[in-house]
Amino acid sequence: MNTTSSPMDQALDRVDGVLKVTGQARYAGEYSEVGLLHGSVVSSTIAKGRVLNIDASAALEVPGVVKVLDHRNRPKLASYDKDYDDADAAEGAPFRPLYNDRVLYSGQPLALVIADTLELARYAGSLIRIEYAREPHETDLLAAQDEAYTAPAETPKPRGSFKAELAGAALSVDVHYSTPNEYHNPMEPHASTVLYQADGSLQIHDKTQGLQNCQSYVQKVFGLEKDKVRILAAFVGGAFGSGLRPQYQLPLAVMAALELKRSVRVTLTRQQMFTFGYRPRTLQRLRLGAAANGRLVAVGHDAIGQTSRFEDFTEHVVEWSGMLYACDNVELTYKLAPLDVYTPLDMRAPGAALGVNGLECAMDELACALAIDPVQLRLVNFAERNGNEDKPYSSKELRACYAQGAERFGWDQRNPEPRS
Questions:
Q1: Is the pTM of this model over 0.85?
Q2: How many domains does the chain have?
Q3: 190 and 238 in contact (C-beta within 8 Å)?
Q4: Tally of helices (H runs) and strands (E runs) in the chain
């Protein structure tokens, strides 16, 4: 290799770095043209039920308001679930914005106000009155855990004799943990600017991590030809996974543009950033059995994650407990509890951020119970192979990492008493 042209060990600017730090980068919500209209989403204030009436009369009287769209007067949409499937969709029936009078979760978009300015659109949206028929709802995973069912995604098969080895272990811990919902909230909120072209085609600047995914979604939902839909995302101001699926501001902006044959931008508020995908809440139980020297003889990890009523969102939560430490007797289960909420979505380190958190906390509790140094416990159970697949790791420098880390912050000088 010609080392003179190699970028390794050289200071390099990011391709988009200069534009971003100097404010020259243009994001989805910053493209404009003369006559651009602005849309503001009106969200549900109940978690489950039906819309009986939407009174938009006061909003329509505001000078500068052009249109209010809801399920009663929206443009034609695809009828079948498969048309709303996207490349990152979970199993089930995808959410269809403004499709009918059903309310599936709190914060669901129920109307779109289109006006000359964003300020007018948001003000007019505050004047809309919605009458509901409320239905009993459940949004608490703790209360719904008994309704949980086995997740459709496969987990590694049990190996060895987990229950017998756990019962015969010199010492064991049986611990429960929970992790809360976590929401993607990048600096750039979700926005879609749909520039309506003279030939009826759409040039769309969208906050997305998947251009082709959004293009395909718009084509199928609105019955458009591929060459009539162009999606652009020159810059993404953070996403953390929130841009993997087309979010609802995209079809709402397209609806408005097609209905009015004009360019429209829809930008979600910071509050509305909490009304779509998120890292799901989990309830976890870990049972670890060990010999007196700390060697693991049994590992059990059971997790329940929340999902929506209409899609089964699954993550790889428990698999890590079968591969990160050496153990011959392992049992892993993962269930889903359906709630009246929107479908979760992948976030950085999907699944691992949840499952590894539970596993490592349990290992620390086991170390305390055994009166063994927590780092030493991990060295005793160091895994040379992925136990779930019985395959060797191609490389692993974790032992050196333990040693260097412990040395650098004086691990041997710490007070080993928990919470000391």
A1: yes
A2: 1
A3: no
A4: 11, 21
